[in-house]
Amino acid sequence: xxxxxxxxxxxxxxxxxxxxxxxxxxxxxxxxxxxxxxxxxxxxxxxxxxxxxxxxxxxxxxxxxxxxxxxxxxxxxxxxxxxxxxxxxxxxxxxx
Length: 96
Hints:
The protein is mostly helical. It is 91% helix and 0% strand. The chain is built from 3 helices and no strands. It has helices at 2-27, 30-59, 65-95. The longest helix is centred in the last third of the chain and has 31 residues, at 65-95. The radius of gyration is 25 Å and the shape is flat.
């Protein structure tokens, strides 16, 4: 069974490498490059957000409901109110 596993891994690796090379060759054509860039960046950003969400959930501990309420009332609301006050003061000083 080990031999079959190695052959399967080799085929997957060769297929992935070939796919990357072919994508690189196709994107080198200017007309295709212009048409594909929007889709590429959209899929790249979606993939990045999904990766970060999975990474965040796997790395940090899950909070209980009472802990989330404490963070909200004791930390986030004062930070938000401070940001509103700072923005208001900056807005008043810039226009006067």
